Amino acid sequence: MRRSLAGVALAVTSMVALSFLIPLAALVMSLVKEQSVTAAEQRAAALAPVLTLTTDRAALRESAAGLDATEHLVIHLPDAQTLGRTQAPAALLERARRGRESISQQISSGWICLQPVVLPGDRVAVIENFVPEEELSRGVKASWAVMALLAVGLIGGSVLVADRLGAKVVRSSKNLAQASRALGEGDLDTRVDPGGPKELRDAGVAFNAMAHRMTELLAVERELVADLSHRLRTPLTALHLASERMAGTPESARVEAAVDALETELHAIITAARTPLAVGPMGQGLLGNEAGTHRHTAVAGPSDPRCEAADVIRRRTAFWAVLAEQQERLCSLTITQEPTAVSLSDDDVAAVVDALIGNVFRHTAPGTPFGVHVVRTAQAVELVVEDAGPGIPEPDRALSRGGSTGSSGLGLDIARRAAAVTRGSMRIARGPRGGAHITVVFALAPPLPSQRGPRASRRRPVWPLKR
Predict the structure, then answer these.
(1) Helical H segments across 81-232, by residue range
(2) Which domains are present in the chain?
(3) 74 φ/ψ angles, rounded to the nearest 5 degrees
(4) Could you tell me the CA-to-CA distances from 165 to 4, 39, 178 in Å, in that order?
């Protein structure tokens, strides 16, 4: 590319230089010739007054010497005498004498100027001034050489400037090409330093934005795989409990082995999906980009995700209550009767309930009781899941994605991000039962235009789910 730009500069500058140099060279040559001829005519005219006063040869030679033209200034007197060495053709000389006209004409060896002078007695003398060919072009070659050097310098400078500009463009293009190649080979950290012309700078900025967005999308996809895989652990837990009830039967060992193998594969998928990518802080996953989780407007439209959290929590708790009965766990549910509309889909709220209760089954011994409570406040819905297990020793670490020990660490993160979508929050503490006490706060969804104020507050007493 640099060679092409230099070639273009060379061609353009050469054409421009030639378009000026050729006419300028011709003009210089014409000016030098014109100056020489004019000087010869002036010398001939200057000697004419002397010739009208005297025809004395000595006086004429002295006057010609004063004009600094002794060698080429010739005087043809009326008596056919000639002072000097003539170069004029006889025909031109006779024409000037007879016609009494001034003649300035080029001959084979130079330029001849003939100036007739009328003397007393109607006699005619002719003053001849000859300009040799070398005098007509004196200094022309030197002028041409200077102009040629200037043209070469101009062309060389333009090529050099074009090469430097081309180098800057090529450098930026190469950097962009190398970064694109590296990104194509899987180096998600690659970025370019935008430089060069405005178009290439814009291309570099667009490339960096594309690479950043690509890493974001890949991270979201990998976290989505991990989250979906984690949600499959809910039916796996049910299968584990079913296999325990089949203990002692010929099929129990095979079913248990198959369930263990499936759980191992799911854990491997989650681990592989959560292998760190070369990305910045993301905070994205199943529920979308947390940087954009506050996308809900002040008035929710019909197209916004929306559900009654209490209804979903009631259904999912009833599902887990069956499994709790099989492990002789006491499962209690306290749920409000007030409206609990949140800006989440049924599946998202169900994922939160399954993640929290599933953690109780996975990390506490069979027979450990737990409770689920749904409380409506002025601006939020609080979901509380507590148990009588060992609790969570490091709550802050558990709240970070993948920070839990002994598990994939995604369940609590699913609940945390679901709360963040509604501008809510999540807290982990030790409850009155001695175990974990997890509170997930969902902000209430904005009322629909057709909705009126909330109904009068009513509370349902504790509903023990036990058999």
Answers:
(1) 90-99, 133-136, 140-184, 198-231
(2) 2-140 (3.30.450.160), 287-465 (3.30.565.10)
(3) -125, 140
(4) 12, 51, 20
Stretch 199-227: mean pLDDT, rounded? 80
Distance in angstroms (rounded) separating the CA atoms of residues 156 and 67: 47
pTM score of the predicted model: 0.43
The answer, yes or no, to whether residue 415 has pLDDT greater than 80, is yes
CB 401 within 8 A of CB 409: yes
The arithmetic mean of pLDDT across residues 282-307, rounded, is: 44
Distances in whole angstroms, Cα of residue 75 to Cα of each of 64, 306, 397: 9, 122, 121
Bridging pattern class, strands 425-430 and 370-376: unpaired
pLDDT at 456: 42
Q: What are phi and psi of 367, to 5 degrees?
A: 95, -10
**Residues ≥6 apart with Cβ < 8 Å to 159:** 6, 9, 10, 13
Predicted local distance difference test score (pLDDT) of residue 290: 37
pLDDT in tens, 5-20: 777 777 888 888 888 8
Residue 137 to residue 34: CA distance in whole angstroms: 10
